């Protein structure tokens, strides 16, 4: 509970419950989702970058509408040359747009044909019963490690896709259970992990 100055204590959990939030979206009462914290971190970083850029890049001159003090006590109007000079200076809006574009490009994942994170999730859900750690609990010599895959002619993404889709020997077919994208993702995951197991 948080006490707001001069009022009754404020109950954040009750406030969140009044809006019908579910367990995956709790306000100060549960785990923060990784994507939400990542977004908050990026927003903070961009805000700090914009503030830093405004401190170091903006010209150190008086504002456009501010009168400039001369040698005398009377304020003078800015000259046409000074107005043109300030009009050509860096705009905070342009700097913010450039930094925002840079942050968007730098923090996005590249568009790959295979999603290795999804492949790992599919592997964990469907394959680890027999292939935990790249091993094979049914036929011990037919592991998912690189040397075994090379020996049996399966060290190729298309060969792994065929094996997962159609099955072979004691391995069941997953073509009816998994979609083509999931099969491609898990095949790429196995191929990439083969030399690491």
From TrEMBL:
* GO MF term list: electron transfer activity; heme binding; iron ion binding
Domain named Cytochrome c is located at 114-194
Q: Taking the first listed entry, what is the main subcellular location of this protein, grouped into a coarse class?
A: plastid
Q: Where in the cell is it found?
A: Plastid, Chloroplast thylakoid lumen
User: Which InterPro entries does the UniProt record give?
Assistant: Cyt_c-like_dom (IPR009056), Cyt_c-like_dom_sf (IPR036909), Cyt_C6 (IPR023655), Cyt_C_IC (IPR008168)
- Whether Transport counts among this entry's keywords is yes
GO CC terms, sorted? chloroplast thylakoid lumen
Where on the tree of life does the source sit, at the highest rank?
Answer: Eukaryota
Asked if the record carries the keyword Lyase, the reply is no
Any idea which UniProt keywords this protein has?
Electron transport, Heme, Iron, Metal-binding, Thylakoid, Transport
Q: Provide the function of this protein.
A: Functions as an electron carrier between membrane-bound cytochrome b6-f and photosystem I in oxygenic photosynthesis.
Which family is this protein grouped under? Answer: Belongs to the cytochrome c family. PetJ subfamily.
Protein name per its UniProtKB record: Cytochrome c-553
Q: Which organism is it from?
A: Effrenium voratum
